[in-house]
Specification:
The chain is α/β, with parallel strands linked by helices. The chain folds into three domains: 298 residues, ABC transporter transmembrane region fold, CATH 1.20.1560; 260 residues, Rossmann fold (3-Layer(aba) Sandwich), CATH 3.40.50.300; 102 residues. Helices cover 66% and strands 8% of the residues. A hairpin with a 2-residue loop joins strand 9 and strand 10. The longest helix has 53 residues. The relative contact order is 0.09. Belongs to the ABC transporter superfamily. ABCB family. Multidrug resistance exporter (TC 3.A.1.201) subfamily. It is a multi-pass membrane protein. Keywords: ATP-binding, Membrane, Nucleotide-binding, Signal, Transmembrane, Transmembrane helix, Transport.
Length: 703
């Protein structure tokens, strides 16, 4: 019988690998569906304005179908494993009794008795029978292995020696070289660079330029000429392929990234605000800033007046990505966030290109004041905004094509800069003559009317989705589930009846064990997977039909919605999947066992019922406490997920502001809340589990 041990270990390893692989595929496919959901709900106004809800619904459902089949294959493999374990148990009995009888009759062990054979076979079979109870744990371990693949891959990548961001999380910066009050020239010395995703395309080609201290240097050129790449390299998001960037002749790689970035303020074309208050958004520029410093920075950015007119003033929530504010208001808050730390270097990456004329004038006034007595690098699309720059570089294909002041470049006949100025002047005249943009009408348009038109545009889509809901026959689905549950209740009853008549139908019982267990896990796995797919699809459609104002609430951010789509449906699957089959079978076995016990000897059955009732009461208490914990932890997980989605989506802004430690502390505090809540339910679960095994032995002792 020992020959079965390698078979057991080998088959367990094979099934574990299959389940791990399918779990990894399951997580991968749903991550794509989750990405679609996150993109849709974080940019819902854009989706609705283009009437794209139905298309996004189809893409989401497509990924859910792939996820469904991964789940079915995983549950089928687990069902096969469970049935195989039972089959091995029966094979052990067969081999033990067969070869035991051979040894008794024909071998050299004529003294071998039947009792000795029974003892050996039963001990070995009893040891193997404990494998039957590891099924749920085996599934959990295999699922954890599949989920851990991507996690450990990410952790391993973080230890790569080529990554320069590791030092960011080091809180102690006492050993860093001080570069406060930097006041030197910034020099790009023959810098060449290609993005890792486009190594064949050169972004910068032997770029050589100097941004003088306390002066404003402008970079202009057509799209793709390398302007924004210069900013990314200066912030050390990437490292140059060739050449180096220096400050007063010293390479910026000599300084710690965190402290270096803390001396740089940046305002980009599309300002990124976090879904918190205006005060907290500005404070992210300098974590230890006082309220006076924050208000002073807001005044410098021309933001204080409009903030004070808001109902909650600085405590006003800006919504996800600052959706509650206009473009000009967001830009001014972003500028205040950059100015609150009094940076030595200021980077303006097309800060006014996306604003209307009125907002541009207000923001430009604030920018002009902010540039004084600072080393400033301006990237501009509208050349009228950089006429007062001290020096201008015209870039083309990653190299400097022209350089000089506005007057000298404009006087250069046939030059690139002169051509760009004339083109923009012509476009402005054409726009004015043709009336392509009526700013007053656009500013006066009521937002509610816009939303009403959006609703009318998507009305046909909503009808289609509603029709899909109406076409779904939930009565038929409920009937199928009840029939399936009834079949497995009958299976449990037959299992108990077999134990009373197993002498005559033992072989039929073994065959039944192998096939019905595999069938149980496969059918309930399919039912659970299809239920989760349907729930996620319908939930996604319901979210798309909500009013836009629904998503302005903090609890309905894109991160919170993605968490609901992911965790709530998965929690229902835990109940509707293979676990439901086990519960049905266990309840039916217990019920029919007690009925048969009362039929044969009610006194003995009453005695045995005492430990059963004790375990049942403890289990009910554990379930209720776990339900409470699930409710509390879901709330915290939703907040943590919202924070994680917002941070990862806006990772460049997080790195620009050196917020990593602050964000990590916030996230860790949220996770610690779940840990503090969970130890009591987990301790109770361990107690109930131990009580179950103790009562099993007690029951046998009472018998």
């Amino acid at each position: 019988m020992s020959c079965m041990i390698p078979i057991i270990l080998g088959s367990s390893l094979i099934f574990a690998r299959v389940i791990t692989k399918e779990t990894e595929a399951q997580l991968s496919t749903y991550s794509k569906a989750g990405q679609i959901a996150q993109e849709v709900f974080s940019s819902l106004r854009t989706v609705l304005s283009f009437n794209g809800g139905k298309l996004q619904q189809k893409q989401y459902d497509k990924e859910l179908k792939l996820n469904e089949w991964c789940t079915v294959r995983k549950d089928a493999a687990f069902g096969a494993f469970t049935g195989w374990i039972f089959c091995i148990n029966f094979i052990v009995y067969s081999i033990g009794f067969t070869f035991g009888s051979i040894l008794m009759s024909y071998g050299n062990h004529r003294t071998l008795t039947i009792s000795e054979i029974l003892i050996v076979v039963n001990m070995f079979a009893q040891a193997l029978s404990f494998l039957n109870s590891i099924g749920p744990f085996f599934l959990s371990i295999s699922e954890a292995q599949g989920a851990a693949v991507s996690v450990f891959r990410l952790i391993d990548e973080a230890h790569d020696a080529n990554i320069n961001e590791k030092e960011i999380l080091q809180e102690s910066i006492s050993d860093e070289k001080s570069i406060s009050n930097i006041n030197g020239d910034i020099e790009f010395d023959n810098v060449s660079f290609s993005y890792p995703s486009r190594e064949n395309a050169t972004a910068l080609n032997n770029l050589k330029l100097i941004a003088r201290a306390n002066q404003t240097t402008a970079l202009v050129g057509s799209s793709g000429c390398g302007k924004s790449t210069c900013v990314s390299l200066l912030l050390r998001f990437y490292e140059p392929s060739l050449g180096r960037i220096m400050i007063d002749g010293q390479s910026i790689t000599d300084y710690k990234i965190k402290q270096f970035r803390q001396n740089i303020g940046i305002v980009s074309q599309e300002p990124i605000l976090f879904g918190i208050s205006i005060y907290e958004n500005i404070r992210f520029g300098k974590m230890n800033a006082t309220r006076a410093e924050i208000e002073n920075a807001a005044e410098q950015a021309n933001a204080h007046k409009f903030i004070m007119k808001l109902p909650n003033k600085y405590e006003t929530l800006v919504g996800e990505r600052g959706i509650q504010l206009s473009g000009g208001e967001k830009q001014r808050i972003a500028l205040a966030r950059a100015l609150v730390k009094q940076p030595s270097i200021l980077l303006l990456d097309e800060a006014t290109s996306a604003l209307d004329n009125v907002s541009e004038r207000i923001v430009q006034e604030a920018l002009d004041r902010a540039c004084k007595n600072r080393t400033t690098i301006v990237i501009a699309h509208r050349l009228t905004t950089i006429q007062n720059a001290d020096y201008i570089y015209v870039l083309d294909s990653g190299s400097v094509l022209e350089e000089g002041t506005h007057e000298t470049l404009l006087a250069k006949e046939g030059g690139k800069y002169q051509t760009m100025v004339k083109m923009q002047q012509s476009e402005k005249m054409i726009d004015a003559q043709d009336g392509l943009m009526n700013m007053e009408k656009a500013a006066a348009e009521d937002e509610e009317q816009i939303l009403e038109r959006i609703r009318l545009l998507s009305e046909s889509e909503s009808i289609d989705i509603n029709q899909e809901f109406n076409d779904c026959n939930y009565g038929d689905v409920r009937r199928r589930v009840l029939i399936t549950c009834g079949l497995f209740i009958l299976t449990g009853a037959i299992f108990m009846i077999f134990h009373f008549f197993q002498v005559t139908i033992l072989l039929l019982n073994y065959i039944n064990e192998f096939f019905h267990l595999r069938l149980q896990f496969v059918t309930f796995g399919i039912a659970g997977a299809k239920l989760v797919t349907r729930l996620r699809s319908k939930s996604f459609a319901c979210f798309l039909r909500q009013e836009v104002a629904y998503f302005d609430r903090p609890e309905n951010s894109s991160g919170a919605i993605c968490t609901q789509l992911s965790s709530n449906a998965a929690a229902i699957e835990d109940m509707a999947g293979t676990r439901l089959g086990i519960i049905c079978q266990a309840l039916s076995m217990s019920t029919f066992g007690f009925l048969l016990g009362f039929f044969y000897n009610w006194q003995l059955t009453m005695i045995i019922a005492i430990p059963f009732v004790i375990v049942l009461i403890a289990t009910i208490i554990e379930i209720r406490l776990s339900s409470w914990l699930k409710t509390q932890s879901n709330l915290v997980h939703s907040q943590a997920s919202t924070l994680a989605v917002e941070v990862i989506t806006n990772m460049r802004t997080v790195k620009q502001l050196s917020m990593e430690i602050e964000i990590l502390q916030q996230y860790s505090n949220m996770i610690d809340q779940v840990l503090k809540l969970s130890w009591r339910p987990e301790a109770l679960f361990a107690t109930v589990f131990g009580l179950y095994w103790a009562m099993s032995s007690l029951t046998l002792g009472l018998l």
